[in-house]
Batch of 2 targets.
Target 1
Amino acid sequence: MARFTKIISEYLPIIILLFLVSDFLTNISIKNFDSVFRRYSGITKLLFEIIMIVTIIIKYKQFKRNYIVLLSLVLLFILSQFLYATGINYNLENELFHGNIYYFNRYLYILLFIIFIKIMSIEQKVFLKTYTYFEYFLYVNSIAIFIGLIYNIELFRSYEYSSRFGYSGFFSKPGEASYMYIIAIVTNFYFWIIRKDKINLYKIFFFIIVSLFLGQKKVLFFLLVLGLFYGLSYFKYKKWIKIVLLVSIPSLFVFKNEIIKYIMQVSPFWQERYDEFGLLSVVTSYRNLLLEKVIEFISSDWRFWNYLFGGIDFIKFKTEFELVDLYLFLGFSGILFYIYIVYFHFMKNENLLKRILIVIVFLTSFISGGLLLNVSAIVLFYIAIKKVMLPIKKVHGN
């Protein structure tokens, strides 16, 4: 086992980097070729998942609570599928590669990774190296974003062949790119607050500027909440911030129509959607319409057991509100899973600053979805929170 741990320690930074590189290969395949096989990113994650599962099975006597949660979750998912499949032609192959089983595996991935990391007892310097590789990748991706912006390269756009603004570089999904830059901002913000290093401040500004070119509203929401937190907690002129908030909030309500009109004029894409669907649909990217659709469905089709254990066609009815989707997928047990992951594996035993940063990220995920479902993002967020964002003495290895 010691030899295996050494091998994983040596190659873990490369494995995580392969998650990101293979995503770029998937991006190229989807946008430029008619190839049948496009899941380069998926196969990379699956191979690593097999290694994690085999290791967990071999060391099943350790970390019993995590194993109980893992097995309970699998059983609850099976039960939810029986509830969903009643009276429906349940296609196992489709569910495995595209449907509910596929999405359940993505939800489960972070728990498998957490158990695996605890079993392996990998040194912190390995995770620091992993995070360093991650930031290097973001720098290269940022260059791709600027090149895409200057030369209007469709490959690097968030929404190719669309009038909607946004460039995500090597990432095939703009939502994934958003969380990657959010992770980098949070990590450097944490270190800047605790050690006031200007390098971290420069990184924060750089990642913020690049993230604005992604064209994602979740980034704007995250930056707004993070900015308010900094202004009210650490900014030396925070009394002025409070005064500005007291003045600006009532002003927003008074002049909201003029403000909305001006913002919509800046983006013809959103102006058309605003005229057709209204402000709430523009702000939520139509998630409110998806939520209305799913509420109508569960009101007519769900029974008592569904409310406890879920049971729904996830592709058809997901709303992209993180907690709502987990409830639809696994019922009340999905909410418990969310609380278990967020509190026990991210927030427990952390200082107040880190807890608030975690809440801000998961709050962003709650209104926009995708964090727990995005394997690369949630794994890197866990590494950043638990293995990189440590007290100064531990970071420097003293």
Target 2
Amino acid sequence: MKISSYSRKGVVVVGGSTSTRVLPRRTCRVLASSTQGQTNTPTFPKSPERQMQEAVNSVLAAWKNGAKCQRVEILLPLIGATDLDDWPGGIQQQFKAAQPLVETLLRGIKAEPGLEGPLGAEILDMGDAVGKWESEKVLAVLFPSGSTLPRVIESSKGKELCLLINPQWTTEGGAFSNVVSDFGFFPWQKKAAEDYLANFEETFYFRSTRVDSENLRIYKAYPGRYTVFSVDDRGEGRYLGDDEARVPYPKLKQLAASFEGSRAAMGIIDRMYAEADYLQKTMAAPPAQDKDN
């Protein structure tokens, strides 16, 4: 299954049938310490292949439980990264990294009875790298933007499963307050977007972020919780805590500094030295490839 990236026609047929509730800090500490040394300590995928298998499982499990509208956030492998910028090519470069993962996801989904059928693919917006995969039963949109949302709404009518993958807006902060301009100036435009997006359940979420010199990963696979890990230079993760909803930044800062040896818990001078050492190591050699679980 392949899209001709940014072809002039922009369309190719794919063959084959083919309100956040924050846990108190004390609770998070108990969660982190109570699982040490146990075999059921939460983990996260350590390879793109494992990530996409977990994503397929999550989407199908949620669909079987009635979730026809789903949001999916996948962690993209870095391609062409530089010392100063992970994505010097911007959203188009991210599309090239995401496309094979999305196609793997869709192959797994359309193997499920009730979701089978050939998928057509189209570029909805070349500048914002918005891609659409569609069959009679499934709609998947990669990097949907506010300007393409009306077309997504129209395409999703009558579908058995609709996926929004790595949206280019953020709904954090409540009532979609950060994306009013993306969905239009007029109140009814914002209301229509809010009503539509309220139907979507986030069933898979995997993101990497750096907080106060600590590398963190946040992971959720349906029907689980949002789980936070600190990741060392070898790619090994330390479980820090979890929550029912996305963990807000202030809580991430607390978790990043909640364990012995944390760089986030250092004084400002020690943290500056640790950050300089980290940058020197990353510039000296490419990051090691993650191994699967």
